[in-house]
Amino acid sequence: MAPLPKLAVFDLDYTLWPFWVDTHVDPPFHKSSDGTVRDRQGRTIRLYPEVPEVLDRFRGLGVPMAAASRTGEIEGANQLLELFDLARYFVQREIYPGSKVTHFERLQQKTGVPFSQMIFFDDEKRNIVDVSKLGVTCIHVQNGMSLQVLTQGLETFAKAHAG
Ligand SMILES: [Mg+2]
């Protein structure tokens, strides 16, 4: 069996959803009577379409998950995770501005999972560069999190840990 990561970490903006929560949308958010998530102006807010399936897949594989975001819109980001029913997937949420190295050091301390056993999905190259230096397997997400990116990520992780 291919080795699996012991923690999968996801960025939020342009990884789980296609916008910057601090810029492109207008908190607070709410769920309207038709079940859609909307911002203060009534605009519909969506995830990348395969995100719930991706998180279900990781859960099925027994891989715990966490969120790591540098957004300054901490309340809005947490609210979206609740409204999209994603908060239940994450054992930890590290959401605050600053270098992502801090987010990962805290994740390591809180979960006890070594950096080498983590996989990280993020759309921003600078985060990939910073977090790679810790020894985390980092996957650069180009068009949002999808099942294809998940498969690529697990293959990359397995190759890095082969033999
Ligand atoms: Mg991002």
From TrEMBL:
The keyword Hydrolase is assigned to this record: yes
Gene behind the chain: MDP1
Higher taxonomy: Eukaryota, Metazoa, Chordata, Craniata, Vertebrata
UniProt record similarity statement: Belongs to the HAD-like hydrolase superfamily.
UniProt catalytic activity: O-phospho-L-tyrosyl-[protein] + H2O = L-tyrosyl-[protein] + phosphate
Cofactor(s) demanded: Mg(2+)
Function: Magnesium-dependent phosphatase which may act as a tyrosine phosphatase.
NCBIfam families for the chain: HAD-SF-IIIC, MDP-1
Protein name per its UniProtKB record: Magnesium-dependent phosphatase 1
EC number: 3.1.3.48
Classification via InterPro entries: HAD-like_sf, HAD_sf, HAD_SF_ppase_IIIC, MDP-1_euk, MDP_1_eu_arc
